[in-house]
Structures are given as C-alpha cells and as structure tokens.
Amino acid sequence: MQRFTPALLISSLFASLIFTQSSAVFAATPEESIRPIQDQWAEIKYRLPEKQQAARYHALAEQAGELAAAQPGKAEALIWQGIALSSEAGAKGGLGALSIAKTARQQLDAAIKLDGNALQGSAYTSLGTLYYKVPGWPIGFGDKTRAEELLKKALAINPGGIDPNYFYADFLAGRARHGEALRHLEIALKAPARPGRELADSGRRQEIQALIAQVKKDME
Fold first, then answer.
1. I need a surface site. Which of 26, 101, 109, 118 has the fewest CB within 10 A?
2. Could you read off the pLDDT of 89-144 as tens digits, one per residue?
3. Mean pLDDT computed over every residue of the chain
4. What pLDDT does residue 166 have?
5. Cβ-count burial of 19 within 10 angstroms (0-12 exposed, 13-18 middle, 19+ buried)?
6. Measuring CA to CA, which residue among 69, 27, 186, 191 is closest to residue 120?
7. Three-state SS sequence of the chain
8. pTM
C-alpha cells in the first residue's frame, strides 16, 4: 500500500491544480482566452508612459502568438497578435517599425482568411488602420484606397461599434473629409459599452472627444 507522505500529498495536489488549470484553458472559448490580452493592451495604452509601451506591446504580441499557435484555425488570437504588433510599431516609430508593421499585416491577413467576422470584424479595422498609417511606396505598403475599403468592411460588420467608427473618422479627418468624420465620431460616442472593457472604452472616448475638437478646429 502506498503511503501518502506530506511531500507526496503536496505533489499530488500540485499536479491536480495544473490539470485543472490546463483543462480550464482548453475549455475556454477563443473570446474568453483573449480577455487577459485585451486587458493588458488597455493597461499599456492608457496607463503606461509612452517610453515603456513598445517593449510591453512586443511581449504581448508574443503572448498572443503563443495563444494563436495553441488555437489553430481560430482567428481571435491572431487578431490580437496583429493589434499588439501594430501598437508596437506605432509606439516605436521610424523606419525600424516598418518590419513590425509588415508582420502585423501578415497576422491580420491570416485572421481574415480564417474568419473575417471574428470579434465583429476587428481584423478589418486594424488592417485598414495600418494601411493608412504606414507610409506608401517606395518606403512602405501604405495605401489609402485599400485602407478605406477595409475600414468600410469593418463598418459593414459592426456599424455601431466604437472602434470601426473612430478609426474610419480618423482616416476621414486625415483626408479633410470633416463632415463625414464628425458623423462617424458621433456614432462612436453613442456606441454601447463593451462588458469587461471599461478601460478601453474610457480611453477611446477621450480620443474621440479630442478628435472631434481637432476636426471642428480644422473646419474653422
């Protein structure tokens, strides 16, 4: 008969905990599994000093990549890997960020091929934003026409969403299409709250208000 010494009991308990946690991870839906990544992204963007953001986005992209590898055939983690990489490129800036942006584009393209409707079309929003923020040829792959096509696809999937309306408005403002930009900014302000994403919503609404003020100033 096996004797359960204290050490053996602790070992058995530890193994049981690992099994339980692993089972919970595998049982989680793709939407549930990305929530920690969403939360970390909001913390980085809206609470960390800008100088610290690039490295943290890089680590977050790696975390999302590991999750994507564990969920083959699912688009959600790939989308967030693309978002984290895009954010890293934006935080880093300069020509050195172009290779990061290209990797972000690859992940977002891959996500769209799997399921363009995942996370309410977020891959289209993020990819469209990349296309209008990255420089065009011969430096980068930026393309304003392609950007608008993708942003409109995102809006077709999620017409009342805070992010697709904000980013399309930002694109329109950059093209001096002020009236259209204001219309989409007003829709973004009225977007329903996203459960569990209070920090992201609060930060985005501050950005919306700032862009409204800038657009109105530009119209004077």
1. 26
2. 999 998 889 999 999 999 999 999 999 999 999 999 999 999 999 999 999 999 99
3. 89
4. 98
5. exposed
6. 191
7. CCCCCHHHHHHHHHHHHHHHHHHHHHHCCHHHHCHHHHHHHHHHHHHCCHHHHHHHHHHHHHHHHHHHHHCCCCCHHHHHHHHHHHHHHHHHCCHHHHHHHHHHHHHHHHHHHHHCCHHHHHHHHHHHHHHHHCCECCCCCECHHHHHHHHHHHHHHCCCCHHHHHHHHHHHHHCCCHHHHHHHHHHHHCCCCCCCCHHHHHHHHHHHHHHHHHHHHHHC
8. 0.87
Q: What is the mean pLDDT of residues 28-41?
A: 93
The domains of the chain are located at 31-143, 159-220
Place of tokens 């939360």: 39
Respond yes or no on whether the N-terminal peptide bond of residue 138 is cis (omega within 30° of 0): yes
Buried b (16+ CB within 10 A) or exposed e, 52-86: ebbebbbebbebbbebbeebeebbbbbbbbbbbbb
pLDDT band at 81 (very low <50, low <70, confident <90, very high): very high
